[in-house]
Each structure stands twice: as structure tokens, then as C-alpha cells.
């Protein structure tokens, strides 16, 4: 029997390679899957076809996750279509602007807060409310953060601070929901070959240069991240909550080298 047979999963951000790979991996393990997209309709259509090719039902939603009202309406449509929701994977977001704090506008920081933190807060809140209505209880929340939820970079306060907020939202929810059987965990990737790293995807020379700081000397494929998310979404991970799983080829272990 598949790990997620009969479950319904909601994955935000099929525009990214991780979101797309996760949605497909969840479907291959038996889940019906709803996904959101913002910019890449072609990619979202491809995700839908792959879910359906796996024999599962798909729902593709074009929404801006910075808008609370759009999130609420999206949940309504998912529940109307599938009747339930068992797994939430928060993945959508924006990258760093490359601007140092002294030069960063309030508008830019607010944009990051809305996309990277408030969207996670809004989706988690509504998901919890729905799971509390479900007679069987339980549920799975997996938040995709980044190794930069712990390790900052110059020019990335917008990204680093909101990723840190995601991490502590997860940890707080894990404590609040433990007795209800709703687990909440983080997956924190390092370098992944997605549109966030488009230059490295397209140019092997750029990629080879960037991976030199990674002990494994390579970037992750989105499918590798997706496999861990599938595990955390399954009953096999019922005793796992409040954890952050760094998937970075050992990059974060390098922080004190050469000191």
C-alpha cells in the first residue's frame, strides 16, 4: 500500500522545482494534490498532468499567497473539491533582494514578510482549524525553510529573517499541536537546482564554481528534497515533530572551518 493512500495534500508554490517535485512525489504515494502557482502556468499545467498520470486527482490554483483573502478562498475550493485536507506543505516564497539593511526599503521588507512569513502563518492557521474539525484528527505540516533560517548572509536580511520566522513558527506550532497528533516540521535545503539558482541550472561552469563550498561538491535535485517531505507527511513520521532537517550536502557543517 502506498504511504499516503487516500490522503489529500496541499502544496504551495509549484513555480519552484521543490514544489513541483513534492506535489508529484506525494501523488505517486497515493495522495490527491492541490497546488498553487503565481508566475509559471506552464509548469503548473505540467505538475497537474504528472499528478493525474500517477492516477490521482489534481487541483491547480493561481493565487497570490501574500493575500489572506485569496488563501482563504483557495482552502474553500480545495475542501469543496476533495472534502478534506491531511497534509500541508508550505514552499512558496521569494529570494533575497541582495540589498543591505541600511539601503533596504520598508516596502521590500514588507513584501518578504508577506510572501515568506505571513503566507505560512495564514495557511497553517486555516489548516489547523480544518484538521480540528476532522473526526479522525491528526495531520501533517511541513514547512520548507532554508539553511539560512540559521546561517545569515550579507544582503539577505529580508530572506534570512523571514526564514528564521518560519522556523520558529514551526517550533511553536509543534508544541501547541503535539497532543492533537498534528506534527509540524521544517525541511531546510541548501543549494538546490531550481529557478532560484537558474544560472547554475543552465551553466555547468557557474554550477561547478558555486558547489566548491559544499562538502559533497554538488547541489541537490528537487526530487531529493521531495522524498524527505513524503516521509514527514506519512504515518511513518508520526513521532517526528518540531524538527528541522538540513539538506545541504554538509554545507552548514563548514561554518567554523578555517577559523
Mean pLDDT: 92
Q: What's the CATH architecture?
A: 3-Layer(aba) Sandwich
**How far is it from the N-terminal to the C-terminal residue, by CA?**
50 Å
The proportion of residues in beta strands is 5-15%
- Low-pLDDT stretches: none
Globular, elongated, flat, extended or rod-shaped: what is the shape?
Answer: globular
CATH topology label: Rossmann fold
Task: Order the strands across the largest sheet as they lie in space.
Answer: 3-2-1-4-5-6-7
Determine the number of helices (DSSP H or I, runs of at least 4 residues).
Answer: 8
Specify the structural class: alpha/beta
H/E topology pattern: EHEHEHEHEHEHHHE
Instruction: Return the CATH class.
Output: Alpha Beta
Measured as a percent range, the helix fraction is: 40-55%
- In total, how many domains does the architecture comprise? 1
Question: What does this protein look like?
Answer:
- The chain has 259 residues and is α/β, with parallel strands linked by helices.
- The chain has a single domain, classed as Rossmann fold (3-Layer(aba) Sandwich).
- It is built from 8 helices and 7 strands; from the N terminus they run βαβαβαβαβαβαααβ.
- Strands 3-2-1-4-5-6-7 form a 7-stranded parallel beta sheet, with helices on both faces.
- β1, α1 and β2 form a beta-alpha-beta unit.
- α1 packs across α8 and α4 packs parallel to α5.
- The radius of gyration is 18 Å and the shape is globular.
- The protein starts with 7 loop residues before the first strand and ends in a 12-residue tail after the last strand.
- The mean pLDDT is 92.
Amino acid at each position: 500500500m502506498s504511504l499516503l493512500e487516500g490522503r489529500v495534500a496541499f502544496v504551495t508554490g509549484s513555480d519552484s522545482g521543490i514544489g513541483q517535485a513534492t506535489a508529484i512525489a506525494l501523488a505517486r504515494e497515493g495522495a490527491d494534490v492541490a497546488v498553487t502557482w503565481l508566475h509559471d502556468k506552464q509548469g503548473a499545467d505540467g505538475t497537474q498532468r504528472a499528478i493525474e498520470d500517477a492516477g490521482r486527482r489534481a487541483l491547480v490554483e493561481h493565487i497570490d499567497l501574500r493575500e489572506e483573502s485569496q488563501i482563504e478562498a483557495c482552502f474553500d475550493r480545495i475542501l469543496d473539491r476533495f472534502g478534506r485536507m491531511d497534509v500541508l506543505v508550505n514552499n512558496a516564497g521569494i529570494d533575497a533582494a541582495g540589498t543591505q539593511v541600511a539601503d533596504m526599503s520598508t516596502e521590500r521588507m514588507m513584501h518578504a514578510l508577506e510572501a515568506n512569513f505571513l503566507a505560512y502563518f495564514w495557511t497553517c492557521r486555516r489548516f489547523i482549524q480544518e484538521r480540528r474539525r476532522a473526526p479522525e484528527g491528526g495531520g501533517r505540516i511541513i514547512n520548507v525553510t532554508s539553511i539560512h533560517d540559521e546561517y545569515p548572509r550579507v544582503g539577505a536580511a529580508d530572506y534570512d529573517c523571514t526564514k528564521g520566522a518560519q522556523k520558529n513558527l514551526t517550533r511553536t506550532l509543534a508544541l501547541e499541536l503535539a497532543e492533537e497528533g498534528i506534527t509540524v516540521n521544517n525541511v531546510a535545503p541548501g543549494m538546490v537546482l531550481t529557478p532560484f539558482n537558474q544560472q547554475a541550472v543552465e551553466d555547468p561552469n557557474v554550477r561547478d564554481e558555486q558547489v566548491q563550498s559544499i562538502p559533497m561538491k554538488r547541489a541537490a535535485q528537487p526530487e531529493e528534497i521531495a522524498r524527505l517531505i513524503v516521509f514527514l507527511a506519512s504515518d511513518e513520521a508520526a513521532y517526528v515533530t518540531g524538527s528541522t532537517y538540513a539538506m545541504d550536502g554538509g554545507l552548514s557543517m563548514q561554518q567554523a572551518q578555517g577559523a
